[in-house]
Structures are given as structure tokens and as C-alpha cells.
Hints:
Elements: H1 9-20, H2 25-32, H3 36-44
Amino acid sequence: MRKLGKWDTTFKETIVELYMAGTSVQTLSEDYGIAKATIYTWIKK
């Protein structure tokens, strides 16, 4: 059975856009409470 994601697509896209605009993964992780590994996974996609 597939585990449903906690974050919706729009939110993920927003985080990636913030990263592309220059916000560090560390800052995004701290500000939004998301694991750095999760953010890196979203960036790769």
C-alpha cells in the first residue's frame, strides 16, 4: 500500500521556487519544519 504524502504539490512547488530564488535548504527546513532530505528530494524532481 502506498503511503500518502503529507505535503501537497502546490506547497512543494513553492518550497522549490524559494530554493531557486536563493533561500538555503537549511533556512527552508528551519522555517517550515521540513527535513532537509525531503527538500532535496523535491528539488531533484
